[in-house]
Automatic annotation (TrEMBL):
It comes from the Bacteria. This is DUF1778 domain-containing protein.
Length: 62
């Protein structure tokens, strides 16, 4: 399906609000992270972001 100009502008506007962080774990570790996220009922992105937030909170309290 072709994107309309309005759709392209909306995507560009939404992407401007987000940062892109690339992770490249070894395949086995990536599979383990995906499996843990699935078991937790979360997307991989939600799972990784939650883990990062929790660690940041712990380290801020030290």
């Amino acid at each position: 399906m072709a994107s309309t100009e309005a759709q392209k502008r909306a995507v560009k506007k939404a992407q401007a609000k987000c940062d892109a962080i690339m992770l490249r774990p070894p395949k086995e570790e990536g599979a383990a992270i995906r499996a843990a996220a699935f078991a937790a009922g979360q997307s991989t992105q939600q799972y990784v972001l939650q883990a990062a937030r929790e660690r940041m909170e712990r380290e801020a309290g030290e």
